[in-house]
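User: Show me a protein chain along with its predicted structure.
Assistant: Here is one chain, sequence first, then structure tokens.
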Amino acid sequence: MNEIPQFETRCTYRSEKMYCWRGNLYVARADDDEAADRADPATVEGVPVKCPACKGKDYILTPAGKELVEMLWRHLEPRIVELIDEFRKE
């Protein structure tokens, strides 16, 4: 059974006529902001704008996902710091 949905969910960010699609913001041209063919990517100086909610990942952690990440980091951080120190010595 797939357990991933309990840890993350697809981003559904929407704000006025902007919405997240695959981690990038799109601006709806028409009143129907659901139609991807009627939207333009939001850009700043030609660079696509990442969604502020999912930070361009297209997925958002659920509360259970946040707890899992915190638990993993708590146990992995000391080992990662130790590995970095080993590389610095070489």
